């Protein structure tokens, strides 16, 4: 092969790479003004991209010990096992390192067991508290709201042990109507309340997220404690439903934590990308759940159905690269 042939082959390769990167940025991000998708040589400075810092996680020798919660059905000797239950009921057990069903649990956030379910498309979130039978079986009115594949998370602390969140898939048969992940928004409404989110989670460090509750245009200043706090926040990662339990700042009755309208949380997400946040708060004697889609890091919006197509990390990439928000984007 002569030099000219090599060079032209190289040039063709580059053209293909740039063409692909341009196509992804342009097609997958319809909300970005066209001018922003132009290739800017400054975009080649991708090494300063904060996503780069998450690369080290892939090589972390600690492995599963640093995984987010909820990704494993069995961890540290404990296993979540759904068991047959009458129609309308959901039941499961946690077996321990000795293989027997665990019957001893610590109370955390007012309960021995927090069962969270969400459909795999992040719709249908529920957070419920099952009852423990003497044989170690947890039972609750089924929170599974319709056909689809659901992820059920058991968030608990075995007596004398460490907090653990196990997750298991449960299929509800029937015709499936997939729901796209709603676009990121700073405000949402639920049961007549408006909840506004400020703050953006940043991968690898703690960020403050503040949720502010109002009703009929007036701030709600008499939130009721729920699970030992004025709000309870769960985040699920788009793509694999990694489970993040986000801790509130301050507790009711500590003399400094107001009963609204703002509730603050310290959140740390494991990676950039899309997350669905679920805020449970109590007011008027009822628990309400406000949901938000957020994009951690600097990732802009992307359609939920866009596959992760970035395969050329060295290619110059528009800073508004929609691929960052797509499922599957990540640094493995
Ligand atoms: Cu709970």
Summarize the structure.
The chain is mainly β. The protein has helices at 3-27, 55-58; strands at residues 74-75, 78-83, 89-95, 113-119, 126-128, 131-132, 137-141, 148-156, 164-172, 187-190, 193-198, 207-215, 218-219, 232-237, 243-248, 262-267, 273-283, 286-296.
Walkthrough of the structure:
With 332 residues, the protein is mainly beta. 9% of the residues lie in helices and 33% in strands. It has helices at residues 3-27, 55-58; strands at 74-75, 78-83, 89-95, 113-119, 126-128, 131-132, 137-141, 148-156, 164-172, 187-190, 193-198, 207-215, 218-219, 232-237, 243-248, 262-267, 273-283, 286-296. Strands 10, 11, 12, 13, 14, 15, 16, 17 and 18 form a nine-stranded antiparallel beta sheet that branches. Strands 1-2-3-7-6 form a five-stranded antiparallel beta sheet, with no helix packed on it. Strands 5-4-8-9 form a four-stranded antiparallel beta sheet, with no helix packed on it. β10 and β11 (193-198) form a beta hairpin. The longest helix is centred in the first third of the chain and has 25 residues, at 3-27. 32% of the residues are buried. Residues 1-63 and 299-332 have low confidence and may be disordered. It binds copper (II) ion. Copper (II) ion binds next to loops.
């Amino acid at each position: 092969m002569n030099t000219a042939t090599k060079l032209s082959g190289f040039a063709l390769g580059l053209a293909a790479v740039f063409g692909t990167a341009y196509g992804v940025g342009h097609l997958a991000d319809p909300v970005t003004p066209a001018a922003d998708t132009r290739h800017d040589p400054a975009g080649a400075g991708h090494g300063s991209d904060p996503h780069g810092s998450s690369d080290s996680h892939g090589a972390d020798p600690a492995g599963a010990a640093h995984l987010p919660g909820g990704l494993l059905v069995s961890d540290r000797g404990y296993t979540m096992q759904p068991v047959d239950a009458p129609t309308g009921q959901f039941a499961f057990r946690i077996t321990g390192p000795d293989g027997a069903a665990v019957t001893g649990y610590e109370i955390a956030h007012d309960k021995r067991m927090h069962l969270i379910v969400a459909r795999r498309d992040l719709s249908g979130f529920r957070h419920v508290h099952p009852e423990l039978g003497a044989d170690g079986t947890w039972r609750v009115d089924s929170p599974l709201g319709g056909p689809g594949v659901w992820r059920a998370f058991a968030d608990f602390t075995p007596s004398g042990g460490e907090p653990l969140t196990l997750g298991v898939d449960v299929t509800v048969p029937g015709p499936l109507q997939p729901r796209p992940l709603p676009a990121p928004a700073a405000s949402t409404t639920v049961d007549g309340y408006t909840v506004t989110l400020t703050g953006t989670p940043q991968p690898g460090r703690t960020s403050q997220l503040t949720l502010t509750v109002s009703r009929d245009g007036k701030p709600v200043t008499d939130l009721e404690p729920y699970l030992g706090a004025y709000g309870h926040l769960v985040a699920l990662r788009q793509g694999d439903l990694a489970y993040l339990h986000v801790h509130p700042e301050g507790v009711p009755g500590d003399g400094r934590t107001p009963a609204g309208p703002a509730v603050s949380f310290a959140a740390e997400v494991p990676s950039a990308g899309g997350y669905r946040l679920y805020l449970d708060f109590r007011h008027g004697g009822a628990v309400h759940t406000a949901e938000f889609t957020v994009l951690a890091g600097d990732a802009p919006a992307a359609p939920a159905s866009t596959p992760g197509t970035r395969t050329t990390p060295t290619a110059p990439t528009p800073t508004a690269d929609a691929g960052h928000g797509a499922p599957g984007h990540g640094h493995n």
